[in-house]
């Protein structure tokens, strides 16, 4: 009969071995080492419940989220196909996208795939039931993240699946506001065709859409917003007294030829 001391030693060694194996599994998921990932996963599941394998552990992360972030399609597909019943697609973790360098807290697998431009993974996650509007800790949705990083295919995919264009982040910037901020007339025209837009929205600092267009010196965006029915908030709630507003030439069909504000 084994002594209690020996049993504790065996248990401790097994736990350490599983923790090391889980760390290696995460590395394989992030780097797309599919055969090694499958082998490690098979070994780990001998002593660990699948749900515990796939849920994030502190800053160590989740195999699904890491694979989605790094664009590892094969691993994401394998996980979704074989372990969907034990997955929570709304698990989150803190990530640091390579293209920004700053930490993002509360990121789901879908958010990571959207910001990284991995449209095939985005489609798979949505088909598996991922929440299309699940925001990170700053209330930034996958759609806003995709627009911020100029992921055109992902933007179209999310819009066609019904992503909400009006959800604002902690700065008050919604996906609909992003084209105004970036002086992107084509994107603004596109978003108008998807869902009802709130033309009275402002940033968290109280700056309305028309003031943003004015600050960007964008006549095209300004004119389009006027055409859509946007009203300028005067004085601007963000500044007191409000700064002078330059005149803009506006097509006659919308307003008199020249507006002096």
Automatic annotation (TrEMBL):
Gene3D superfamilies to which the protein is assigned, alphabetical: Ankyrin repeat-containing domain
Transmembrane segments: none
Highest taxon, organism lineage: Eukaryota
Repeat recorded as keyword: yes
Keyword annotations from UniProtKB, A to Z: ANK repeat, Repeat
SMART domains: ANK (SM00248)
ANK repeat ranges, renumbered to this chain: 105-137, 138-170
InterPro entries: Ankyrin_rpt (IPR002110), Ankyrin_rpt-contain_sf (IPR036770)
tRNA-binding found in the keyword field: no
Protein's recorded name: Protein fem-1-like protein C-like
Organism classification: Eukaryota, Metazoa, Porifera, Hexactinellida, Hexasterophora
């Amino acid at each position: 009969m084994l002594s209690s001391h020996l049993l504790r030693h065996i248990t401790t060694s097994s736990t350490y071995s599983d923790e090391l194996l889980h760390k290696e599994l995460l590395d394989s998921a992030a780097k797309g080492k599919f055969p090694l990932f499958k082998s490690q996963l098979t070994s780990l599941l001998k002593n660990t419940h699948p749900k515990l394998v796939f849920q994030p552990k502190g800053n160590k992360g989740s195999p699904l989220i890491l694979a989605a972030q790094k664009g590892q399609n094969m691993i994401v597909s394998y996980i979704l196909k074989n372990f969907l019943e034990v997955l929570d697609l709304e698990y989150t973790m803190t990530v640091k996208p390579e293209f920004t360098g700053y930490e993002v807290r509360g990121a789901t697998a879908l958010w990571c795939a959207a910001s990284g431009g991995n449209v095939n993974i985005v489609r798979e996650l949505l088909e598996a039931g991922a929440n299309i509007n699940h925001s990170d800790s700053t209330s930034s949705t996958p759609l806003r993240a995709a627009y911020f990083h100029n992921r055109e295919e992902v933007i179209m995919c999310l819009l066609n699946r019904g992503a909400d264009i009006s959800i604002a982040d902690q700065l008050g910037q919604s996906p609909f506001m992003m084209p105004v901020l970036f002086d992107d007339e084509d994107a603004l025209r596109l978003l108008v065709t998807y869902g009802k837009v709130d033309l009275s929205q402002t940033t968290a600092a109280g700056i309305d859409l028309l003031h943003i267009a004015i600050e960007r010196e964008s006549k095209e965006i300004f004119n389009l917003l006027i055409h859509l029915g946007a009203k300028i908030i005067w004085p601007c709630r963000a500044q007191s007294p409000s700064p002078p507003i330059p005149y803009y030439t506006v097509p006659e069909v919308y307003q008199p030829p020249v507006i002096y504000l």
